[in-house]
Amino acid sequence: METFGQTGILFDQHAKFRTAQQEMARTLEDVLARRTRALFLNASAAIEASPAVADLLAQELGWDEAMKHDQVAKFKAVAGNYLPS
User: Fold this and answer.
1) CB atoms < 10 A from the CB of 69, how many?
2) Which of 7, 34, 38, 65 is most buried when burial is the number of CB atoms within 10 A of its CB?
3) pTM assigned to the model
4) Contact 50/44 with Cβ under 8 angstroms?
5) Could you report the per-residue pLDDT of 30-80, keeping only the tens digit for each?
6) How far is residue 5 from each of residues 2, 20, 29, 48, measured CA to CA in Å?
């Protein structure tokens, strides 16, 4: 089980496989918003964890560096709407 930084978001190898293969999640937003609900529970933590979670998903989904960067950027744009004003 991996914990990302100070976020407290846990994402283990089994969850990575299950999310990508069995639940057919294909985007970082899908994983952090819908599959783990991290975005809704703690948007700041989800933003902080997003690069590390993207690295794990990239292994399962075959993303290159450009795709990882794109997924993180898109997620941060959406997640910014969930931060307090």
Assistant:
1) 13
2) 38
3) 0.79
4) no
5) 989 988 888 998 899 899 999 988 998 898 889 999 999 999 999 999 999
6) 9, 22, 19, 8
